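The aim of this short unit is practical: by the end, you should be able to scan a pair of folded records and say something sensible about each. We start with the first protein, listed as its amino acid sequence and then its structure tokens.
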Amino acid sequence: MSVLDNLRTSKRLPVLQVLKTSVATIAAWLIAGALIPTQLPVFAAIAALLVVQPSVNQSLGKGIERSIGVLLGVIVASALSLAFGAYSWVVLVAVLVAMLIAWALKMAPATGNQVAISAMLTLALGAATPNYALDRVLETLIGAAIGIIVNAAIVPPVAIAPARREAALLGGELAASADRLAAALETAQSRADIEALMIEARLLRPMREAADAAIAAGTESLTLNPRRSAHREELAQLGALLEQLGPIVTQLIGMTRAFADHYDASLHDEPTVKAIAEQLHRVAHDIRLAARVAEPEPEPMTSTVPALTSALVVRPPTSSHWILIGSLLEDLRRIREELGAEA
């Protein structure tokens, strides 16, 4: 990785967020400059710039973080300025003291840095001026408030589309994995085929984690969001889908692992194994049916009726296969339970 790679990200910020950040910064500069005309409103502009975040809730958190950091920084700078005067070395001492206070209070790194930066700027820009410290705190509060208001008023961000996309991807891949395992149970497999099947099954875990993270981000984006009522039900449906599919991921990976560990060439001749394969095809159908809530415009399906409607009839397996078949049956029972078939 080159040094320049650290300067770029894999994707750009949304243009709307860039525009909102610009609007908030300009508004903070003009309003704070009009209300507190004694100094350039640098603190207000910086606060507004930092407060506009991907969600209104994050904006509120960043506003509080910024305000606390500035307040502590200004207090440190003012105290040291009164104690030692306006010497250049006092700025260095202020940075050290600010960092130590942040460390002692167990502040987050961003907040600790904010305390030090505020102390340094306060001393560098004129802490000796009467009312300077109070003006800078008020200026920061104005900028933070403007940033929050702009983010909430101008198309407040709602992270539902990523949650829907990740949930749909998980549902589609989970159904495909069930079909692949069913096909592997029906026909003889090479060792390479089994390894490929296992690798594809393991990929379900990071997909489930990505979907969980997207749902969490969507939930966070609706907190304090004026548009939350229009999306709350949709997000609840996606969350319910993830709660249903999450355990199935675990069971399907377990079934694939058991198949890979106990496979032999005569396995597909077992009548019960063929019945399990048929059930897995039905599982795939019902997963696709459940995952349709994650698709804005779901494609038509051959059947919209759940396929797991009949109980599995088990015949006694041969002695060499009973451990594998027993394991597959137990995982299959749990999957049927998650999909509502056992009810």
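Turning to the second protein, read its sequence before its tokens, just as you did above.
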Amino acid sequence: MTTRIPAAEITGLYGTLVKKFSVKMFGKVPESLGVMWHNPAVLKASMGMGQRLQKWDSCDESLKSYAHMAVASLIGCTWCLDFNYFMAHNHGLDLEKAQQIPRWRDSGVFTPLERDVLEYAEAMSTTPVTVTDELAARLLEQLGAPALVELTSVIGYANLTTRGNVALGIESEGFADACGLKPLAAPSGRVVA
């Protein structure tokens, strides 16, 4: 991986904790952590938000995971696609669906609700935002207000992380490969973000 900012050495007590957590979760310390280590306060805030998001439970976990992967596919964040595919595997989500996220519009594996969620994730991620009243109304009817607010916040966080990773040159680190997962489908047509 060639990042735009070279990885820093992860040091200190907090650094030791971060490395232990990383090895427990991923089996290694990702190089991306070294990049973010240049500003531990930013890393800590981002990791904290990511952990809090995982505790929310108004919206189905698979819908949130697929939405994050749709954002990553649209933006072009190979790190987030790889990581979220790895996490889908670890959480027992439907890997055939996760594998098809980059070409969800052409794939026949998604339900109408999942398609609406994926469309919503992409529509939130374009500039300008292209969410329609009709799409939001369909999701509100199918999910309810608490789940739609949660899904929207997860997609917003996905945009923060994916765009930051792409800007810093942080790319896939082979998490999914280490689990022996099938490669992700090649993207079909892309919406301009």
